[in-house]
Amino acid sequence: MMSTRGGNTYQRTFLEGFLRPGVGMENWVSRTNYPALNVIQTAPGEISFYANKNYGQPTAHLQRYTLRLDGFASLHAPYDGGEMLTKPFVLEGGNLDLNYSTSAAGSVRVEVQDASGVPLPGLALSDCREIIGDQVSRHVNWSAGLASQKGKTIRLRFALRDADLYSWAVS
């Protein structure tokens, strides 16, 4: 899988195979698993893509694959947990929305820090309501409001346990 931020420069960020050929020699021939043009949104929380299967054989066909919205890659943490810290950025909104999935025992929490990494009052990890479940868009809630930091430079610290974080957005 490759990505770009516009222009003619592409990054091969994820070196692992995204779509594996699967069982059967007919799936291991040249041009099988080549994706058809574009990814399309097929439901409110779902995207789909199509790939060639059994290329050059009488059984050749396109097969549809589905993913959750923004589900190509995630920040994953096992049951023992893991964390990620963003680079400093200027907050342009008052809400933080997550696209995430946890196990029944898993969770996500978020801490808001100042540019130097000090937790902000009312926005520390211990102030964040534990987030569980599986949602494409959910507001993060703390004991204080995030809107008070609008226009300021902040960092986000994500703490996950048996969870995947697919994307986050400030609104």
Keyword list:
Hypothetical Protein Tm1070, Chain: A, 6-stranded antiparallel β-sheet, 3-stranded antiparallel β-sheet, mainly beta, about 170 residues, 9 strands, 2 domains, about 0% helix
Structure report:
This protein is an all-beta fold and 171 residues long. It folds into two domains: 72 residues, no CATH class; 96 residues, Hypothetical Protein Tm1070, Chain: A (Sandwich). 0% of the residues lie in helices and 42% in strands. Strands 4, 5, 6, 7, 8 and 9 form a six-stranded antiparallel beta sheet that branches. The protein starts with 39 loop residues before the first strand and ends with a strand.
Q: How many domains is the backbone divided into?
A: 2
Which H/E pattern describes the elements? EEEEEEEEE
Beta-strand fraction estimate: 35-45%
- In the CATH classification, which architecture of the largest domain applies? Sandwich
By DSSP, the count of extended strands is: 9
Number of helices: 0
- Largest sheet features: 6 strands, antiparallel
Given the helix and strand composition, which structural class is it?
mainly beta
